[in-house]
Amino acid sequence: MSQARAKKIKLLLFDVDGVLTDGKLFFFPSPAGAQQGTHEHAAKHSDKPGYAIASASMVEAKGFHAHDGTAISLARLGGIQTGLITKRISETVALRARDLHLDHVHQGIKDKLGTFHEILKQAGLQNDQAAFVGDDIIDLPVMRACGLAVAVPNAREGVKDEAHFITDHFGGDGALRDVVEYILKSQGRLQQVIDDYIASRRTDI
User: Fold this and answer.
1) pLDDT, tens only, 148-183
2) Which residues, other chains included, contact 202 with Cβ-Cβ below 8 Å and sequence gap of 6+?
3) What average pLDDT does the segment 104-115 reach?
4) Does residue 166 contact residue 150 with C-beta atoms inside 8 Å?
5) Best CA proximity match to 119, nearest among 158, 155, 85
């Protein structure tokens, strides 16, 4: 059943904390003179808990897995759009999103379902053509609305109960790679995309 759903996917969206990362948050003093492009955005939510530290003197650090970076490249070669929807606002996430060239980046989002529908409209896609990867209850509205709902093993039990597919790897440990490979394999395109990826990195052609 989940493979049939995966065959239709043209858009892969995901949460950040607990999915693209292991969910841990680290706060360090910001280097002198460092510019944080998300500071103004974060400051608008400074009176609300759980969004971000709106401070020019602190920086939020997260750990990302290289396998997930490759996953985004594979998805792009496979014609699948990618993007994140997260409640927290982090300069680290903004930098990683730019590094990966994500198609859709939405931070500081309380109503993830509303943003999900906005992205679908912008992309010209239907609900059943989108997948979402989540780990906590804030992700459930989107998981219930999308075509392929995915949870990571470290997700809350109630979230895993509503998922069509659960990754082998934990959030922050290559879970997104599992999703991309599952979708492309279900579409019969995984090996061709891998071959294209390798060919694109050869210097002798």
Assistant:
1) 999 999 999 999 999 999 999 999 999 999 999 999
2) none
3) 96
4) yes
5) 85
Give me the count of residues in the chain: 205
Phi, psi of 136 (to 5 degrees): -135, 175
- What is the Cα–Cα distance from 166 to 176, expressed in whole angstroms? 11
Please give the distance of CA 34 from its chain centroid, rounded to a whole number. Answer: 26
What is this structure's pTM? 0.87
Q: How far are the Cα atoms of 32, 78, 102, 104, 203 from residue 83, in angstroms, in the given order?
A: 31, 15, 5, 4, 30
Strands of 25-129, DSSP E: 26-29, 58-61, 81-86, 104-107
> Distance between CA 183 and CA 189 in Å, rounded?
9
Tell me which amino acid residue 75 is.
A
Q: 102 near 72, Cβ under 8 Å?
A: yes
**Tokens encoding 160:** 């895993």
Helices and strands, counts by H and E, the chain: 9, 8
